[in-house]
Write a structure and sequence with these properties.
about 240 residues, alpha/beta, Rossmann fold, 4-stranded antiparallel β-sheet, 10 strands, globular, binds adenosine-5'-triphosphate, amino-acid transport, ATP-binding, ABC_transporter-like_ATP-bd, ATP binding
Amino acid sequence: MTTLLQVEQLSAGYGEAVVLNDISLSLGEGETLALLGRNGTGKTTLMDTLAGATRQHGGQIFLGGQALHTLPSHERAAAGIGWVPQERNIFKSLTVQENLTAVQRPGRHWHGSRAWTPERVYELFPRLAERKTNLGTQLSGGEQQMLAVGRALVLNPRLLLLDEPLEGLAPIIVEELLRAIARITREEGLSAIIVEQHPQAILKISHRAVVLDHGRVVHASDADTLRENPDLLDSLLGVARKL
Ligand SMILES: Nc1ncnc2c1ncn2[C@@H]1O[C@H](COP(=O)(O)OP(=O)(O)OP(=O)(O)O)[C@@H](O)[C@H]1O
């Protein structure tokens, strides 16, 4: 398995405050990582740090062998990071179609995979196809999340970062998004890191799992180890909860 992402002794935070301490992890090409932990343990900070949106205090990040830690955020996007932050950064004053075409990088795709285009995004999310001419403000929360994922896909990333993509969505939309995420990752082989508060659904489609507590890695294994051992999962998240 070729290593896609290599994180070494990463520490980062906001201003002088250090939130992440000595984080090391790696992810293979085509693998999905479930990033777990109770509230406030640093999951979002880690995603933001990979995307270049925090203050890095130490350590290194490599994507496909290329050093990311020296690059500003927009150059990390060009290097292959597709970031879907918690706040779903879509352009609300543009239509669905404009949101997708504004950021599209049509010429780029990796390892012979099929390039993502707005048309492919519509095929993945038929609800968006019906809303092509709607403004971002006219979309439901679920549709906004689909559009946020679609915007990251048309950048044709090497690594997709999904921060709580299911948060606050109706069960039927959660099912649709989970199916789409499984298709993108499991079937199409796009590498991803997914932060989620409800771990079972994400562990089912992930290869690897990492649990954070107090900004440190307290568990790293294959996803099945945690999925098949709910007591271990509870104790990892439960221990964190008591602290
Ligand atoms: N912009 C910020 N400035 C300063 N501190 C912050 C900022 N954002 C988060 N923090 C702090 O960093 C720590 C980790 O927060 P983070 O949001 O990364 O955790 P999380 O595991 O993603 O939690 P959640 O599940 O609630 O999103 C917390 O102590 C939080 O207060």
